[in-house]
Automatic annotation (TrEMBL):
Belongs to the pseudouridine synthase RsuA family. This is Pseudouridine synthase. Residues 45-174 form the Pseudouridine synthase RsuA/RluA-like domain. It is an enzyme of class 5 (isomerase). The keyword Isomerase applies. Keywords: Isomerase, RNA-binding. The lineage of its organism: Bacteria, Pseudomonadati, Pseudomonadota, Alphaproteobacteria, Sphingomonadales. SUPFAM superfamilies: Pseudouridine synthase. InterPro entries: PsdUridine_s_RsuA/RluB/E/F_cat, PsdUridine_synth_cat_dom_sf, PsdUridine_synth_RsuA/RluA, PsdUridine_synth_RsuA/RluB/E/F, PsdUridine_synth_RsuA/RluB_CS, RsuA_PseudoU_synthase, TruA/RsuA/RluB/E/F_N. Pfam families: PseudoU_synth_2.
Amino acid sequence: MIAEGRIALEGEVLTTPATLLEDLRGVTVDGKPVAPPAAARLWRFHKPAGCLTAANDPKGRPTIYDRLPAGLPRVMPVGRLDYMTEGLLLLTNDGELKRQLELPATAVVRRYRARAFGEISQAQLEELSEGVEIEGMRYGSIDANLERRTGANCWIELALTEGKNREVRRVLEHLGLQVSRLIRLSYGPFTMLDLAPGQVGEVQREELFRFRQTLK
């Protein structure tokens, strides 16, 4: 764009990309002022089961963008939830915030609730605190607790910080359980509150600011 003469600073067309800027004042593209970056925003979305965390699907399956209400700005999901996994999915308009929340080093705790078929003991679940390796993939510490049994099914609550692809399902299947329902309850301090499936609610800027101050 600079080589094509489309970028100017205070009316002077730039001829080199080696130009240092303190801010975007006076910068134009094709004669139009460049807007300052939008402030970082974060939304809670109660993702329903049966939609992909993706922009589109070659197989034609519904995605979260088919479920999101009209009127939102361009948003990106923070992490992913599987097609059949439901619950809290954070959305943001800011790539830096997205990366910050997803980095394993940031150690943001994700909490899940799983309904599974099969026999499991609390002692077996507690062994997950040491991490587990499954088919060459190492999964970090998971805090898992047997909540209750309902017939042949049990409800398990889990807390983890890595969030690898299909981590909860793979770990529970490794323990001999068949997961029939998986719900993400929270991501860091953010929960679904009273959002119904498909509903979105914005995180207050003060709440987001305080949370970002705690990140590593």
